[in-house]
Please model this.
Amino acid sequence: QVQLVESGGGLVQPGGSLRLSCAASGSIFGLYDMAWYRQAPGKQRELVAKITRGGTLIHADSVKGRFTISRDNAKSTVYLQMNSLKAEDTGVYSCNAVHFISRREYWGQGTQVTVSS
Model:
Protein backbone atom coordinates (compact mmCIF):
# COMPACT_ATOMS: atom_id res chain seq x y z
CA GLN A 1 0.00 0.00 0.00
CA VAL A 2 1.23 3.48 -0.81
CA GLN A 3 0.41 6.83 0.75
CA LEU A 4 0.51 9.95 -1.41
CA VAL A 5 0.85 13.54 -0.18
CA GLU A 6 0.62 16.46 -2.61
CA SER A 7 2.01 19.94 -2.09
CA GLY A 8 2.74 23.07 -4.05
CA GLY A 9 -0.72 24.30 -4.96
CA GLY A 10 -1.86 27.87 -4.49
CA LEU A 11 -3.05 31.05 -6.14
CA VAL A 12 -1.17 32.28 -9.19
CA GLN A 13 -1.78 34.91 -11.84
CA PRO A 14 -2.39 33.94 -15.46
CA GLY A 15 0.92 33.31 -17.18
CA GLY A 16 2.56 32.28 -13.94
CA SER A 17 4.12 28.99 -12.87
CA LEU A 18 3.73 26.43 -10.11
CA ARG A 19 5.41 23.16 -9.33
CA LEU A 20 3.37 20.44 -7.68
CA SER A 21 5.02 17.63 -5.75
CA CYS A 22 3.63 14.27 -4.69
CA ALA A 23 5.60 12.35 -2.10
CA ALA A 24 4.97 8.62 -1.85
CA SER A 25 5.60 6.35 1.10
CA GLY A 26 4.74 2.88 2.30
CA SER A 27 5.79 0.92 -0.75
CA ILE A 28 8.42 0.68 -3.46
CA PHE A 29 7.94 3.77 -5.61
CA GLY A 30 9.44 2.17 -8.66
CA LEU A 31 6.60 -0.36 -8.84
CA TYR A 32 4.05 2.32 -9.71
CA ASP A 33 2.99 4.26 -12.75
CA MET A 34 2.30 7.81 -11.57
CA ALA A 35 -0.10 10.43 -12.82
CA TRP A 36 -1.66 13.80 -12.08
CA TYR A 37 -5.37 14.38 -12.49
CA ARG A 38 -7.40 17.51 -12.00
CA GLN A 39 -11.01 18.34 -11.37
CA ALA A 40 -12.43 21.76 -12.10
CA PRO A 41 -15.64 22.94 -10.40
CA GLY A 42 -18.65 21.30 -12.02
CA LYS A 43 -16.53 19.11 -14.28
CA GLN A 44 -15.35 15.52 -14.29
CA ARG A 45 -11.87 14.61 -13.19
CA GLU A 46 -9.46 14.45 -16.11
CA LEU A 47 -5.97 13.10 -16.70
CA VAL A 48 -3.36 15.85 -16.88
CA ALA A 49 -0.17 13.85 -17.26
CA LYS A 50 1.22 10.39 -16.66
CA ILE A 51 4.70 8.92 -16.27
CA THR A 52 5.21 5.17 -16.30
CA ARG A 53 7.76 3.13 -14.40
CA GLY A 54 9.89 3.11 -17.50
CA GLY A 55 9.67 6.87 -17.99
CA THR A 56 7.12 7.01 -20.79
CA LEU A 57 5.32 10.36 -20.70
CA ILE A 58 1.76 11.23 -21.59
CA HIS A 59 0.42 14.78 -21.43
CA ALA A 60 -3.13 15.89 -22.12
CA ASP A 61 -3.47 17.98 -25.27
CA SER A 62 -4.68 20.92 -23.20
CA VAL A 63 -1.37 21.12 -21.30
CA LYS A 64 1.18 20.02 -23.91
CA GLY A 65 4.03 22.47 -24.15
CA ARG A 66 3.10 24.07 -20.81
CA PHE A 67 3.15 21.27 -18.21
CA THR A 68 5.82 18.64 -17.62
CA ILE A 69 5.56 15.57 -15.43
CA SER A 70 8.69 14.00 -13.97
CA ARG A 71 9.67 11.58 -11.25
CA ASP A 72 12.58 11.10 -8.90
CA ASN A 73 12.61 7.48 -7.82
CA ALA A 74 15.36 8.10 -5.27
CA LYS A 75 13.08 10.61 -3.53
CA SER A 76 9.86 8.67 -4.20
CA THR A 77 8.37 11.84 -5.61
CA VAL A 78 6.54 12.82 -8.77
CA TYR A 79 6.39 16.42 -9.92
CA LEU A 80 4.22 18.51 -12.20
CA GLN A 81 5.85 21.67 -13.50
CA MET A 82 3.14 24.02 -14.71
CA ASN A 83 4.06 27.04 -16.81
CA SER A 84 2.00 29.62 -18.69
CA LEU A 85 -0.96 28.90 -16.46
CA LYS A 86 -4.43 29.81 -17.63
CA ALA A 87 -7.68 30.37 -15.77
CA GLU A 88 -8.97 27.09 -17.16
CA ASP A 89 -6.19 25.25 -15.34
CA THR A 90 -7.93 26.02 -12.06
CA GLY A 91 -8.95 22.95 -10.10
CA VAL A 92 -8.00 20.36 -7.53
CA TYR A 93 -4.93 18.45 -8.65
CA SER A 94 -4.58 14.90 -7.36
CA CYS A 95 -1.72 12.46 -7.50
CA ASN A 96 -2.44 8.89 -8.62
CA ALA A 97 -0.36 5.72 -8.33
CA VAL A 98 -1.11 2.44 -10.10
CA HIS A 99 0.79 -0.74 -9.22
CA PHE A 100 2.23 -2.14 -12.42
CA ILE A 101 1.14 -5.76 -11.70
CA SER A 102 -2.03 -5.63 -9.59
CA ARG A 103 -3.27 -2.36 -11.21
CA ARG A 104 -4.49 -1.32 -7.79
CA GLU A 105 -4.59 2.43 -7.60
CA TYR A 106 -4.12 4.99 -4.87
CA TRP A 107 -4.96 8.66 -4.61
CA GLY A 108 -3.63 11.61 -2.71
CA GLN A 109 -5.88 14.11 -0.99
CA GLY A 110 -5.46 16.74 -3.68
CA THR A 111 -4.11 20.26 -3.78
CA GLN A 112 -5.96 23.35 -4.99
CA VAL A 113 -4.59 25.35 -7.90
CA THR A 114 -6.28 28.66 -8.64
CA VAL A 115 -5.28 30.78 -11.61
CA SER A 116 -6.74 34.25 -11.32
CA SER A 117 -5.76 37.87 -11.56
